[in-house]
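Why should sequence recovery work at all? Because a backbone constrains its sequence more than one might expect. Tight turns favour small or flexible residues, buried strands favour hydrophobic ones, and helices have their own preferences. The token representation captures these environments compactly. In the example below, the structure is given first.
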């Protein structure tokens, strides 16, 4: 029997800056809020001091997302819980 483990990466607004100096990009907002100096410095230098995390939303378009392709890909997947 062959087991294949697939890890799915979910994308969201954090994909727009796609930056993580000490953590993964998924933690960008948390790093900004918690005071991570390298993330805050990067953010201010790249986007400006007045650019808020919520402002990334208008840049997140997901133009390459194809729900039918995802449905086809996982149509025959069986999930087992051990």
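From this structural description, the recovered sequence reads:
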């Amino acid at each position: 029997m062959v087991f294949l483990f697939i890890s799915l990466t979910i994308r969201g607004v954090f994909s727009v800056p796609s930056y993580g100096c000490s953590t993964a990009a998924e933690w960008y907002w948390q790093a900004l809020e918690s005071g991570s100096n390298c993330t805050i410095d990067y953010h201010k230098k790249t986007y400006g001091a007045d650019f808020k995390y919520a402002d990334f939303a208008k840049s997140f378009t997901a133009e390459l997302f194809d729900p039918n392709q995802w449905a086809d890909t996982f149509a025959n997947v069986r999930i087992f819980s051990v």
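A few observations help interpret the result. The longest helix spans residues 37-47.
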